[in-house]
Amino acid sequence: MSKVAIVTGGTSGIGKETALALQADGYTVYELSRRAEGVAGMRHIPTDITKEDMVNAAVAKVVEQEGHIDVLVNNAGFGISGAIEFTKTEEAKRLFDANFFGMVNMNRAVIPVMRQQGSGRIVNLSSVAAPIPIPFQAYYSATKAAVNAYTMALGNELRPFGVTVCAVQPGDIKTGFTAAREKVIEGDDVYDGRIARSVGRMEHDEQTGMDPAVAGRFIASVARKRSVKPIYTIGFSYSLFTFLVRILPTRTLNWLVGLLYAK
């Protein structure tokens, strides 16, 4: 019996590469996204993860066709940038709906299936921007910090049922995520051009960053592990950064981040 995986945001970028890597490993993969058409050769279910009824219907369809779900990779999401002062609260809430509560919707639908079968792996996509909050991308960092806290709590809740949970933190990856970022440029004159400089630096780092196929293979390998630790970071340099987060005084860390992204 083939193992079954669901990958959200699976039609592009990291999600697509993760889905392809899992498929290459012999998994039957269902990729979910809002797009009408999916990746050729893969099972696609059009789903908006912010809509609980669509999520429940998609998961029910997988269970009906396969009888079980072994892996869920919560990858779908997007980014916004801008000064906190000038970013509308409604936009921040929309970001949390996709990056955090969309993940919550998927997990709530899948957990009963995994709990009843006594096994399963949930992989939530976080970001290095969670332990290292980025100025002018504060709400994105906040959504990913929420993912980390939620992941660790959920892991302890589900451990007795044989269901394991972890988060994976990518750094800069060269994907369409950069172009899709929603930019709030209002107030850049007030902030003396610092918003544009910060976002420009971030986008340069992303577009010269890691191949998404490397990230996809890493995430797929985490999904296959017999046991997992709560949080993984992709890449040596980003693992080093997250290590420094643990040992540097908070004041020093925030000063260094400010030098990079707030000048």
Short structural description:
This protein is an alpha/beta fold and 263 residues long.
Strand line-up across the major sheet: 3-2-1-4-6-7-9
Number of helices: 9
**Rounded to an integer, what's the Rg over CA atoms?**
18 Å
Encode the helix/strand succession as letters. EHEEHEEHEHEHEHHEHH
Globally, the shape reads globular
What separation lies between the terminal Cα atoms? 55 Å
3D architecture notes:
This protein is an alpha/beta fold and 263 residues long. The chain is built from nine helices and nine strands. It has helices at 13-24, 52-66, 89-117, 138-158, 177-180, 194-207, 212-224, 236-247, 250-261; strands at residues 4-8, 28-33, 43-46, 71-74, 80-81, 120-125, 163-169, 182-183, 231-233. The strands form two sheets. A seven-stranded parallel β-sheet has the order 3-2-1-4-6-7-9, sandwiched between helices. A two-stranded parallel sheet has the order 5-8. Strand 6 (120-125), helix 4 and strand 7 (163-169) form a beta-alpha-beta unit. Helix 1 (13-24) packs across helix 7, helix 2 (52-66) packs parallel to helix 3 and helix 3 (89-117) packs parallel to helix 4. The chain is globular and about 60 Å long. The mean pLDDT is 95.
